């Protein structure tokens, strides 16, 4: 008797509890997205048309340019995501194995950079990487030649990694910390060595966290414009191009480019989900 | 279900409360360029607080960084400003689109201080929509210790010797300007071929450019992290205060002369207070405090005649012989779109 009663209560509470977020998302997510779509598909006489998209890719030059802009953005974001994963996975593994107190401390340390405004953090990297910045001053003090660090692709990727790394660590860590240790013990009992435990138990079980981490790093990286402008010197990524359209302002082009970017992100995410489901299936089931 | 309705009612009421809260206190929203008012730094007058003290009107003071971003804020309809200070070509555009209120000069008696030559200019021929705040020119800033010889031409920005040591404007209109002066083109051209020619020139320059900058230019030039940069004369004076190795020249091919003027956008909620603010900014002591701090040239007769004005004879702000100049005018949407596409292409080089 207990079970159904409980469920009833939850059912009763659901719509009202959802209402604030429902209203929020209607106002600030669904409506703006609909407006983006309207602008992107708006033709000359307020009719549906693909003119904006056609105008973007009408000439060979246009296709080449947008191909490069989108390609570069995806490449930069991919590099940042891979680096974040490479840093975050071992760290999360290490954290999850620590004592509760140590875990809390490490968690704090990871969160501290996020207390500072992201724009200020990014801008501060300029001071570190500049021609006469912190690093180059140190090198010249050692009588070593200076390095060109700022306004390079590397600086942009660094900015992405620095800003979004916590978004990779947190989900990976939260999945790993809830990993049932008896599964690891069982694997060890069954003769698995450390390598086998890592690759056949820990990694597959933490994949959901890895997948959300990848999404949470990749999506903001691929659409950033501040980092590429302040650390890359030019602002040559798709986020910059979209921002520039809204400054003309050419809402149509800006909206169309945004939609294309969203579609690309969506495809990437679906591919990821598919990949991770497959992995989970083959390893766990 | 009843609970749900009650919830929405409550939610609606709380929104309603937010909307009509505030009471009797008068408020105006002012949007100005960054670092474009005396704000108490360096011991100057705190102009906004002074206005609040003298009138009892509260000021929400916000800043913008390009004319285009201000326009985006206005046309997006999300913001309501009472006073804005855009540049000439943007004022022209806003007037053409019926985006500005007609000023009531009865409420701006201090407009009498505006010098004759800065009244009723091309962007606002009857002077009905704007009152000049500052004027200025673009020039070439260089670091004496980092250049082989003092540059005299915009061509220095295409000199391969300075590869990686030059900056360029982040705002496309200004960046295109530097190429247009060099090529002897009209900055207000509506000929697409001319814009493409300027874009080719900028593409040629792109590999030499260290970065495309806005306000970060202060740190870069003051820290000797670049040798050359095109920028506004007033900002050069500010940089020069912090690094005396910097020098400035108006290149021989000519340059941009601009006006920034105070306007009241359509949709302003408090016209009376907006006029009061504009009039206040033209008070001789306030105008002087602003001119001293922001270091742009002033169109205000009382400032120019004041014995306390330290920049009175500054050769950068008030050169004896004016360089060849071009003013920006509003461009048709098709040219703006083309400029923007070309700008994205340039960034890919």
Give a quick rundown of the structure.
By secondary structure, chain A is mainly alpha-helical. Chain A contains 12 helices and no strands.
> How many strand elements of chain B?
10
Structural class of chain A: mainly alpha
The total of beta strands of chain A comes to: 0
What is the helix tally of chain A? 12
* Largest interface, chains and sizes: A-B, 37 and 36 residues
User: pLDDT average of chain B, as an integer?
Assistant: 92
The biggest sheet of chain A, with number of strands, parallel, antiparallel or mixed sense and barrel status, is: none
Query: Could you tell me the strand content of chain B as a percent range?
Result: 15-25%
Rg of chain A, rounded, reads 24 Å
Can you put this structure into words, describing what you see?
The complex is a heterodimer of chains A (285) and B (349). With 285 residues, chain A is mainly α. Chain A is built from twelve helices and no strands. Chain A has helices spanning 2-40, 51-56, 60-97, 100-115, 118-129, 134-141, 153-177, 181-189, 194-222, 226-232, 238-247, 251-284. Helices cover 38% and strands 16% of the residues of chain B. In chain B, strands 4, 7, 8, 9 and 10 form a five-stranded mixed beta sheet that branches. A three-stranded parallel beta sheet of chain B has the order 2-1-3. Chain B contains twelve helices and ten strands. Chain B folds into two domains: 25-135 and 259-305, Periplasmic binding protein-like II (D-Maltodextrin-Binding Protein, domain 2); 136-257 and 324-347, D-Maltodextrin-Binding Protein, domain 2 (3-Layer(aba) Sandwich), CATH 3.40.190. The model of chain B is unreliable at 12-22 (pLDDT under 50). At the A-B interface, helix 1, helix 3, helix 5, helix 10 and helix 11 of A face helix 1, helix 3, strand 6 and helix 12 of B.
